Amino acid sequence: MFTTEKSELIVVTGKGGVGRTTISAALGIATASAGTSTVVCEVSQQAVIPALLGASGKPVDGVISAGPGLSAASIDPDATLRDWIRGQFGGTIAKTLGSSKSFSQLIAAAPGAAELLTITKAWELGPGRGFGKSSVDHDTVILDAPASGHGIAMLRSPRTFADIAAGGQIRKQAEKVWDLLRDETRCAIVAVTLPSELPVTETVELDGWLHDVLGRRLDLVVVNRCESHGFTSRDLGRIGASVTSGELKRAAIDVADAAADRQNEQDALIGELEDQVGAPTIRLPELSAGLTGPEIVSQLAELITAQLT
Questions:
Q1: Cβ–Cβ under 8 Å, residues 51 and 34
Q2: CATH, domain range 4-308
Q3: 225: which of 109, 188, 260, 271 lies 20 to 30 Å off by Cα?
Q4: Tell me: the pLDDT tens digits for 163-175?
Q5: Could you state, in order of their start, the residue ranges of all structural domains in the chain?
Q6: pTM more than 0.90
Protein backbone atom coordinates (compact mmCIF):
# COMPACT_ATOMS: atom_id res chain seq x y z
CA MET A 1 0.00 0.00 0.00
CA PHE A 2 1.37 3.42 -0.96
CA THR A 3 1.99 5.74 1.98
CA THR A 4 3.33 9.26 1.68
CA GLU A 5 5.72 9.12 4.63
CA LYS A 6 7.86 6.07 3.75
CA SER A 7 9.70 7.33 0.65
CA GLU A 8 12.85 9.43 0.41
CA LEU A 9 11.76 10.59 -3.04
CA ILE A 10 8.28 10.82 -4.56
CA VAL A 11 8.32 11.63 -8.27
CA VAL A 12 5.03 13.03 -9.59
CA THR A 13 4.52 12.95 -13.34
CA GLY A 14 1.76 12.63 -15.95
CA LYS A 15 0.45 14.17 -19.13
CA GLY A 16 0.57 17.96 -19.41
CA GLY A 17 -2.49 19.77 -18.09
CA VAL A 18 -3.66 17.09 -15.64
CA GLY A 19 -2.81 19.06 -12.49
CA ARG A 20 0.57 17.56 -11.54
CA THR A 21 1.80 20.67 -9.74
CA THR A 22 -1.37 21.03 -7.66
CA ILE A 23 -1.30 17.34 -6.72
CA SER A 24 2.42 17.56 -5.86
CA ALA A 25 1.66 20.41 -3.47
CA ALA A 26 -1.26 18.48 -1.94
CA LEU A 27 0.94 15.41 -1.47
CA GLY A 28 3.45 17.65 0.27
CA ILE A 29 0.86 18.82 2.79
CA ALA A 30 -0.39 15.27 3.32
CA THR A 31 3.15 13.99 3.90
CA ALA A 32 4.14 16.80 6.27
CA SER A 33 0.87 16.38 8.18
CA ALA A 34 1.90 12.78 8.88
CA GLY A 35 4.98 14.09 10.70
CA THR A 36 7.48 13.71 7.87
CA SER A 37 9.83 16.60 7.07
CA THR A 38 9.00 17.31 3.43
CA VAL A 39 10.17 19.53 0.60
CA VAL A 40 8.18 19.91 -2.62
CA CYS A 41 10.37 20.74 -5.62
CA GLU A 42 9.33 22.20 -8.94
CA VAL A 43 11.47 22.45 -12.06
CA SER A 44 10.69 26.07 -12.78
CA GLN A 45 11.64 29.67 -12.16
CA GLN A 46 7.99 30.69 -11.66
CA ALA A 47 7.67 29.73 -7.97
CA VAL A 48 4.23 28.14 -8.42
CA ILE A 49 4.71 25.56 -5.66
CA PRO A 50 5.59 28.13 -2.96
CA ALA A 51 2.46 30.11 -3.87
CA LEU A 52 0.25 27.01 -3.73
CA LEU A 53 1.67 26.12 -0.32
CA GLY A 54 1.29 29.67 0.96
CA ALA A 55 5.03 29.91 1.59
CA SER A 56 6.52 33.24 2.55
CA GLY A 57 9.91 34.54 3.51
CA LYS A 58 13.28 34.59 1.82
CA PRO A 59 14.48 31.38 0.17
CA VAL A 60 17.86 29.93 1.12
CA ASP A 61 19.49 27.99 -1.70
CA GLY A 62 16.11 28.00 -3.41
CA VAL A 63 14.32 26.44 -0.40
CA ILE A 64 11.58 28.35 1.40
CA SER A 65 9.61 27.38 4.50
CA ALA A 66 5.91 26.65 3.99
CA GLY A 67 5.03 25.74 7.56
CA PRO A 68 6.02 23.17 10.19
CA GLY A 69 7.87 20.31 8.52
CA LEU A 70 7.11 21.59 5.01
CA SER A 71 9.28 23.47 2.53
CA ALA A 72 9.09 24.40 -1.13
CA ALA A 73 11.90 24.60 -3.66
CA SER A 74 12.11 25.91 -7.20
CA ILE A 75 14.93 24.23 -9.10
CA ASP A 76 16.31 26.69 -11.63
CA PRO A 77 18.26 24.70 -14.25
CA ASP A 78 20.68 27.59 -14.88
CA ALA A 79 21.39 28.07 -11.18
CA THR A 80 21.76 24.32 -10.80
CA LEU A 81 24.37 24.34 -13.56
CA ARG A 82 26.31 27.08 -11.77
CA ASP A 83 26.15 25.14 -8.49
CA TRP A 84 27.45 22.04 -10.25
CA ILE A 85 30.34 23.93 -11.85
CA ARG A 86 31.25 25.47 -8.49
CA GLY A 87 31.22 22.05 -6.84
CA GLN A 88 33.38 20.53 -9.56
CA PHE A 89 35.90 23.27 -10.30
CA GLY A 90 35.88 25.79 -7.43
CA GLY A 91 34.95 29.45 -7.33
CA THR A 92 37.31 31.14 -9.80
CA ILE A 93 36.92 28.59 -12.59
CA ALA A 94 33.21 28.30 -11.86
CA LYS A 95 32.76 32.04 -12.38
CA THR A 96 34.50 31.87 -15.75
CA LEU A 97 32.72 28.74 -16.97
CA GLY A 98 29.36 29.79 -15.58
CA SER A 99 29.44 32.98 -17.61
CA SER A 100 30.40 31.13 -20.78
CA LYS A 101 27.47 30.71 -23.15
CA SER A 102 29.33 28.05 -25.08
CA PHE A 103 29.93 25.97 -21.95
CA SER A 104 26.27 26.20 -20.95
CA GLN A 105 25.23 25.12 -24.44
CA LEU A 106 27.65 22.20 -24.27
CA ILE A 107 26.15 21.01 -20.99
CA ALA A 108 22.62 21.44 -22.33
CA ALA A 109 23.47 19.41 -25.43
CA ALA A 110 25.10 16.52 -23.53
CA PRO A 111 22.74 13.50 -23.40
CA GLY A 112 20.79 13.62 -20.16
CA ALA A 113 23.01 16.27 -18.55
CA ALA A 114 20.38 18.95 -17.94
CA GLU A 115 17.88 16.40 -16.63
CA LEU A 116 20.53 14.75 -14.47
CA LEU A 117 21.58 18.04 -12.88
CA THR A 118 17.94 18.80 -12.06
CA ILE A 119 17.04 15.44 -10.53
CA THR A 120 20.37 15.36 -8.67
CA LYS A 121 19.56 18.73 -7.11
CA ALA A 122 16.28 17.26 -5.85
CA TRP A 123 18.15 14.19 -4.58
CA GLU A 124 20.56 16.43 -2.66
CA LEU A 125 17.65 17.84 -0.65
CA GLY A 126 16.91 14.38 0.74
CA PRO A 127 17.85 12.67 4.00
CA GLY A 128 21.52 12.79 4.94
CA ARG A 129 22.46 15.15 2.13
CA GLY A 130 21.93 18.65 3.61
CA PHE A 131 22.57 20.93 0.64
CA GLY A 132 24.25 24.33 0.55
CA LYS A 133 23.77 27.04 3.16
CA SER A 134 20.41 25.69 4.27
CA SER A 135 21.97 22.37 5.37
CA VAL A 136 18.46 21.04 5.94
CA ASP A 137 17.73 17.34 5.78
CA HIS A 138 14.26 16.48 4.51
CA ASP A 139 12.87 13.02 5.14
CA THR A 140 10.93 13.14 1.88
CA VAL A 141 11.47 15.04 -1.36
CA ILE A 142 8.45 15.38 -3.66
CA LEU A 143 9.53 16.22 -7.19
CA ASP A 144 6.97 17.84 -9.47
CA ALA A 145 8.56 16.33 -12.57
CA PRO A 146 7.91 17.51 -16.13
CA ALA A 147 5.11 16.07 -18.27
CA SER A 148 5.33 12.40 -19.26
CA GLY A 149 7.75 12.69 -22.21
CA HIS A 150 10.20 15.02 -20.48
CA GLY A 151 9.56 13.24 -17.19
CA ILE A 152 10.68 9.96 -18.73
CA ALA A 153 13.83 11.67 -20.04
CA MET A 154 14.54 12.90 -16.52
CA LEU A 155 14.04 9.46 -14.98
CA ARG A 156 16.28 7.92 -17.63
CA SER A 157 19.02 10.57 -17.32
CA PRO A 158 21.06 9.05 -14.46
CA ARG A 159 21.51 5.81 -16.40
CA THR A 160 22.20 7.64 -19.66
CA PHE A 161 24.84 9.88 -18.13
CA ALA A 162 26.43 7.12 -16.03
CA ASP A 163 26.87 5.07 -19.21
CA ILE A 164 28.72 7.84 -21.06
CA ALA A 165 30.69 9.33 -18.15
CA ALA A 166 34.23 8.01 -17.79
CA GLY A 167 34.10 8.20 -14.01
CA GLY A 168 34.44 10.70 -11.20
CA GLN A 169 31.94 12.31 -8.87
CA ILE A 170 29.30 12.92 -11.52
CA ARG A 171 29.13 9.26 -12.45
CA LYS A 172 29.01 8.26 -8.78
CA GLN A 173 26.11 10.64 -8.16
CA ALA A 174 24.32 9.45 -11.29
CA GLU A 175 24.60 5.85 -10.14
CA LYS A 176 23.32 6.74 -6.65
CA VAL A 177 20.30 8.54 -8.11
CA TRP A 178 19.66 5.64 -10.51
CA ASP A 179 19.77 3.16 -7.63
CA LEU A 180 17.31 5.33 -5.69
CA LEU A 181 14.87 5.53 -8.62
CA ARG A 182 14.89 1.74 -8.97
CA ASP A 183 14.41 1.10 -5.24
CA GLU A 184 10.69 0.81 -4.53
CA THR A 185 11.32 0.92 -0.78
CA ARG A 186 12.93 4.38 -1.01
CA CYS A 187 11.36 5.97 -4.09
CA ALA A 188 7.72 6.17 -5.16
CA ILE A 189 6.52 7.19 -8.61
CA VAL A 190 3.06 8.75 -8.82
CA ALA A 191 1.14 9.38 -12.04
CA VAL A 192 -1.52 12.07 -12.21
CA THR A 193 -4.16 11.59 -14.87
CA LEU A 194 -7.68 12.60 -15.85
CA PRO A 195 -10.72 10.37 -16.44
CA SER A 196 -10.43 10.72 -20.21
CA GLU A 197 -9.01 8.47 -22.90
CA LEU A 198 -5.71 10.11 -23.86
CA PRO A 199 -4.40 10.75 -20.32
CA VAL A 200 -5.39 7.21 -19.31
CA THR A 201 -3.57 5.76 -22.33
CA GLU A 202 -0.42 7.75 -21.50
CA THR A 203 -0.55 6.54 -17.90
CA VAL A 204 -0.70 2.92 -19.03
CA GLU A 205 2.24 3.55 -21.38
CA LEU A 206 4.21 5.21 -18.57
CA ASP A 207 3.69 2.18 -16.34
CA GLY A 208 4.97 -0.08 -19.12
CA TRP A 209 8.03 2.11 -19.64
CA LEU A 210 8.85 2.02 -15.93
CA HIS A 211 8.68 -1.77 -16.01
CA ASP A 212 10.91 -2.04 -19.08
CA VAL A 213 13.53 0.54 -18.11
CA LEU A 214 13.52 0.83 -14.32
CA GLY A 215 12.28 -2.67 -13.53
CA ARG A 216 9.40 -1.34 -11.45
CA ARG A 217 5.84 -0.02 -11.78
CA LEU A 218 3.83 2.96 -10.69
CA ASP A 219 3.15 3.14 -6.96
CA LEU A 220 0.02 5.31 -7.13
CA VAL A 221 -2.30 6.77 -9.75
CA VAL A 222 -4.20 9.95 -8.91
CA VAL A 223 -7.24 10.45 -11.14
CA ASN A 224 -7.87 14.17 -10.93
CA ARG A 225 -11.00 16.23 -11.68
CA CYS A 226 -13.42 13.34 -11.49
CA GLU A 227 -17.16 13.67 -11.99
CA SER A 228 -18.45 13.51 -8.44
CA HIS A 229 -22.20 13.97 -8.76
CA GLY A 230 -23.48 11.28 -11.06
CA PHE A 231 -27.13 10.24 -11.02
CA THR A 232 -28.46 6.72 -10.49
CA SER A 233 -31.55 5.31 -12.19
CA ARG A 234 -33.40 5.84 -8.90
CA ASP A 235 -32.37 9.51 -8.95
CA LEU A 236 -33.71 9.86 -12.48
CA GLY A 237 -37.01 8.34 -11.40
CA ARG A 238 -37.30 10.76 -8.51
CA ILE A 239 -36.60 13.71 -10.79
CA GLY A 240 -39.32 12.56 -13.17
CA ALA A 241 -41.81 12.12 -10.33
CA SER A 242 -41.10 15.44 -8.63
CA VAL A 243 -41.16 17.80 -11.62
CA THR A 244 -44.67 18.51 -12.90
CA SER A 245 -43.99 20.74 -15.92
CA GLY A 246 -43.46 18.59 -19.00
CA GLU A 247 -40.85 20.87 -20.57
CA LEU A 248 -39.00 21.39 -17.29
CA LYS A 249 -39.15 17.67 -16.53
CA ARG A 250 -37.57 16.81 -19.89
CA ALA A 251 -34.81 19.36 -19.37
CA ALA A 252 -34.08 18.09 -15.86
CA ILE A 253 -33.96 14.48 -17.03
CA ASP A 254 -31.67 15.40 -19.95
CA VAL A 255 -29.22 17.09 -17.59
CA ALA A 256 -29.30 14.13 -15.21
CA ASP A 257 -28.91 11.66 -18.11
CA ALA A 258 -25.84 13.51 -19.38
CA ALA A 259 -24.28 13.52 -15.91
CA ALA A 260 -24.98 9.81 -15.51
CA ASP A 261 -23.41 9.09 -18.92
CA ARG A 262 -20.28 11.01 -17.95
CA GLN A 263 -20.09 9.11 -14.68
CA ASN A 264 -20.44 5.76 -16.46
CA GLU A 265 -17.80 6.67 -19.04
CA GLN A 266 -15.46 7.84 -16.30
CA ASP A 267 -15.96 4.65 -14.28
CA ALA A 268 -15.25 2.50 -17.34
CA LEU A 269 -12.01 4.35 -18.11
CA ILE A 270 -10.82 4.18 -14.51
CA GLY A 271 -11.70 0.48 -14.38
CA GLU A 272 -9.64 -0.10 -17.52
CA LEU A 273 -6.77 1.86 -16.00
CA GLU A 274 -6.86 -0.17 -12.79
CA ASP A 275 -6.91 -3.44 -14.73
CA GLN A 276 -3.86 -2.54 -16.83
CA VAL A 277 -1.72 -0.71 -14.28
CA GLY A 278 -2.48 -2.46 -11.01
CA ALA A 279 -1.28 0.41 -8.79
CA PRO A 280 -3.61 1.81 -6.13
CA THR A 281 -5.88 4.48 -7.59
CA ILE A 282 -7.44 7.44 -5.84
CA ARG A 283 -10.07 9.78 -7.27
CA LEU A 284 -10.14 13.50 -6.65
CA PRO A 285 -13.02 15.79 -7.64
CA GLU A 286 -13.00 19.03 -9.58
CA LEU A 287 -13.12 21.63 -6.82
CA SER A 288 -14.88 24.97 -6.95
CA ALA A 289 -13.29 27.60 -9.18
CA GLY A 290 -14.06 30.12 -6.44
CA LEU A 291 -11.38 28.69 -4.16
CA THR A 292 -7.85 30.05 -4.02
CA GLY A 293 -4.90 27.88 -4.98
CA PRO A 294 -3.86 27.20 -1.36
CA GLU A 295 -7.49 26.38 -0.44
CA ILE A 296 -7.74 23.87 -3.29
CA VAL A 297 -4.43 22.27 -2.32
CA SER A 298 -5.47 22.04 1.33
CA GLN A 299 -8.77 20.33 0.48
CA LEU A 300 -7.08 17.92 -1.92
CA ALA A 301 -4.52 17.04 0.76
CA GLU A 302 -7.35 16.07 3.12
CA LEU A 303 -8.97 13.93 0.42
CA ILE A 304 -5.66 12.24 -0.40
CA THR A 305 -5.02 11.47 3.27
CA ALA A 306 -8.53 10.06 3.70
CA GLN A 307 -8.14 7.72 0.72
CA LEU A 308 -4.67 6.52 1.67
CA THR A 309 -5.56 5.59 5.26
A1: no
A2: 3.40.50.300
A3: 188
A4: 776 667 778 888 9
A5: 4-308
A6: no
